[in-house]
Write a structure and sequence with these properties.
CATH architecture: 3-Layer(aba) Sandwich
Distance between the termini: 52 Å
Strand order of the largest sheet: 3-4-5
Number of strands: 5
CATH topology: Aminopeptidase
Number of domains: 1
């Protein structure tokens, strides 16, 4: 596998780009809960092996994935936790600009 100028053997888990196409996104306050609309949007994400972080591999991989998705007519977006500075920074470098904050309310039933 080649990422930029680096070459890796098949036994290296370097980076994985993720595509999420489900009608349960929060980015638009539920507007795409309708299946047809939801499947036209793709959430992009990534997981990078700890030893390979900070080298630009996630940016290279996600940039290519975004190009491929958009070439097929999909709109893409990025979603991450507010305190995930690496993910938020990568999203900005990839061109994502609109930022929204969502608050989650979690309810746990009392122990029975």
């Amino acid at each position: 596998m080649r990422l930029g100028s680096a070459v890796f053997g098949d036994d290296h888990a370097v980076v994985m780009a993720i595509v999420n196409r489900t009608p349960d996104s929060f980015y638009d306050r539920g507007a795409t809960f309708a299946t047809d609309a939801a499947l036209g949007m793709i959430e992009i994400g990534t997981i990078t092996g700890e030893a390979y972080r900070g080298r630009g591999y996630a940016a290279l991989t996600c940039a290519q994935l975004i190009r491929e998705c958009e070439a097929r007519g999909y709109r893409t977006y990025w979603n991450c936790a507010k305190d995930n500075q690496a993910s938020a920074g990568l999203a900005r470098r990839l061109g994502y600009q609109t930022e929204q904050e969502f608050r989650y309310v979690v309810w746990s039933p009392p122990d029975r």
